[in-house]
Amino acid sequence: MRALLGYFLFLLLVLSPLLVQGQGHVLDKPVTEKCLTCICEAISGCNATAICTSPEKGTCGIFRITWGYWVDAGKLTVNGEHPDSEKAFVNCANDPHCAADLVQNYMKKFNQDCNEDGEMDCHDYARIHKLGAYGCQADMPYTFQSVFEECIEKFEDEGLE
Ligand SMILES: *[C@@H]1O[C@H](CO)[C@@H](O)[C@H](O)[C@H]1NC(C)=O
What we know:
The chain is mostly helical. It has a single domain, classed as Lysozyme (Orthogonal Bundle). It is 57% helix and 5% strand. A 3-stranded antiparallel beta sheet has the order 1-2-3. Strand 1 and strand 2 (58-60) form a beta hairpin. The model is unreliable at 4-27 (pLDDT under 50). The structure holds 2-acetamido-2-deoxy-beta-D-glucopyranose (NAG). 2-acetamido-2-deoxy-beta-D-glucopyranose is lined by residues 45, 47, 49, 51. One of its GO terms (molecular function) is lysozyme activity. It catalyses: Hydrolysis of (1->4)-beta-linkages between N-acetylmuramic acid and N-acetyl-D-glucosamine residues in a peptidoglycan and between N-acetyl-D-glucosamine residues in chitodextrins. Keywords: Antimicrobial, Bacteriolytic enzyme, Disulfide bond, Glycosidase, Hydrolase, Signal.
């Protein structure tokens, strides 16, 4: 009985930091809902049809997420699917919730002031999402940028900023 209790306490001590870490991973979300909406508006029109526009590279789902992005964002999966399973990436990228969590993780990891305005905000997240973590200072594609700006302005006009 004593040994069993000891074993239980041992398990608790070993596992609890993992549990806390796991929770922090999911709960710590730097990107607002408004910002997620404007990024998906700009990149896919928030079209949630499960589709990969470039099957070779990936580019799947509402946020047009690539395989490399999925890897960098921690290989999240839906319904407890194993990350090594063949469809794990496509299934997560095509699931709006899983895809949004990927964006959160990616931004948490690559947080930076891309436009050098002294703030880390949605404008930087849009750049990181569209241009990647290592080229986010580059020029933004015109269509993406104009849809994104229009979306942000709409929220500001509604006083939701
Ligand atoms: C969403 O994307 C699918 C697949 O590309 C397309 O068939 C559908 O028309 C799109 N829906 C809207 C509302 O644009």
